[in-house]
Specification:
Blueprint (H helix, E strand, L loop, with lengths): L1 E5 L9 H15 L3 E7 L17 E4 L2 E6 L11 H10 L5 E5 L4 H12 L4 E4 L6 H4 L3 H18 L2 E4 L2 H6 L9 E3 L15 H5 L8 E5 L8 H13 L5 E5 L6 H13 L6 E5 L3 H10 L2 E4 L8 H8 L4 E4 L5 H6 L3 E4 L3 H13 L4 H16 L1 H16 L1
Parallel strand pairs: 1-2, 1-5, 2-4, 5-6, 6-7, 7-8, 9-10, 9-12, 10-11, 12-13, 13-14
Antiparallel strand pairs: 3-4
Helix pairs in contact: 1-15, 2-3, 3-5, 8-13, 11-14
């Protein structure tokens, strides 16, 4: 089986939903699937240098092949005419294409080419069909969706959603394409940094609970609820230290506004802002955190949540993070609505009852191992591919 993965970019700057294509490709290759990933060298839309990678050449990586193409002529929109020309010439060599992202010009054009070349394809929306996300640039998306994405969705062999809730609420423009509901996977670390290393580096006392937010600094992530909730708990003399890890190079104004709010608040003395973190620093923060929190207004999966659970860190999330039901069923964390009073009360109860943390942590890690490991996800994905091809 020869599978083509297509995604606008795999740069770290675009976060987990794009990065997961690398994990998926590696996991499929380990199962014996011939995988080629095509993408661009895009590395952000606001002046960052492109990825320093060979262009237009097959690169062997973790058992699969990847080909990077230059963003041309529209770097801002991750558009690549060379990628599309390559696809037009090579589509017939593959059995199926898995296209990641909607409302992205290169993905839209790739689906059109696949349809013209009679190459079966699956589309993964990355949450862009969520009604809340469709409200952004609403008029433009309505036109784009009806004229361009509707025929792409109608012509697809399936739409890959990462949760039942995402599939349930997504707008499909009247198409009847089958749903393929398979969650994202995460890499379960084989080893972790020494426990307490990041706590020591950040000079946080061993007895002080650490609450960690590690995600893009974006309005949808619920920081407008989380910061006042923490402020209330601080005023109640409940002890904790809050770590804010993340960035948003596409909206630096919002990121700066959050930093300014923190600076002016009573939380300033018990908050550490790390910016974007990777590698050992990222694992160290996840390892040393007592609680991971993400009160998003909408999240089609929440890859950061799964990454936290993979290190054995229980989570506090909103009921709009669409894997909340699985987390609740596994007793791997605590669920709150997107209401300030309930989020405050949930965090209060969590912090006042540390005797529950260890059991939740074990359940969190078990949940990831059983449902979100790349090995399990690859097997389910291959079954979906085979069903389409049969």
């Amino acid at each position: 089986m020869k599978i083509l993965q297509i995604v606008p970019s795999v740069s770290l700057i675009y976060g987990g939903p794009s990065q997961m294509v690398l994990g998926l490709s590696q996991a499929l290759a380990l199962e014996g699937i011939d995988v080629t990933l095509i993408t661009t060298n895009s590395n952000g839309d606001t002046g960052q240098a492109p990825l320093d990678v060979p262009l237009g050449k097959e690169i062997e990586q973790d058992g699969y092949k990847v080909i990077y193409f230059p963003c041309y002529p529209f770097r801002r929109y991750k558009f690549s005419l060379p990628l599309l020309q390559w696809l037009g010439s090579n589509a017939k060599q593959y059995d199926l294409a898995h296209i990641h992202a909607l409302f992205s010009p290169v993905s839209t054009a790739a689906a059109t080419i696949a349809r013209q070349q009679k190459l079966p394809y699956i589309m993964r929306p990355l949450g862009t069909l969520d009604p809340a996300d469709l409200q952004k640039k609403k008029q433009l998306k309505q036109i784009y969706g009806l004229l361009l994405e509707k025929p792409n969705l109608a012509g697809a062999s399936g739409i890959h959603f990462t949760s039942q809730e995402e599939a349930k609420i997504s707008e499909k423009y009247g198409t009847h394409t089958p749903d393929i509901v398979i969650p994202l996977g995460v890499n379960i670390p084989e080893s972790l940094p020494p426990l307490g290393k990041m706590r020591q580096e950040l000079d946080i006392a061993p007895e002080i609970p650490i609450i960690l937010f590690m995600s893009r600094i974006d309005p949808k992530k619920g920081l407008d609820l989380l910061l006042p909730a923490l402020e209330t708990l601080h005023q109640e003399a409940i002890k904790f230290h809050f770590i804010l890890a993340g960035t948003n190079p596409q909206d630096p104004d919002y990121e700066n506004s959050i930093a300014e709010k923190i600076k002016q608040s009573s939380l300033n003395s018990i908050i550490t802002i790390t910016g974007f973190v990777t590698g050992e620093t990222k694992l160290g923060l996840l390892q040393d955190a007592d609680i991971f929190v993400l009160p998003s207004y909408y999240e089609n999966f929440g890859i950061a949540v799964a990454e936290a659970m993979a290190t054995g860190t229980p989570v506090v999330i909103s009921d709009r993070v669409h894997i909340w039901q699985e987390i609740e069923s596994a007793a791997a964390g605590w669920i709150s609505s997107c209401e300030l009073s309930q989020l405050t009360q949930t965090l209060r109860q969590v912090l006042l009852h540390p005797e529950n943390w260890q059991e939740k942590a074990m359940n969190a890690r078990n949940l990831v191992q059983n449902q979100y490991s790349w090995n399990a996800i690859a097997k389910r994905m291959i079954e979906a591919y085979q069903e389409i091809l049969n």
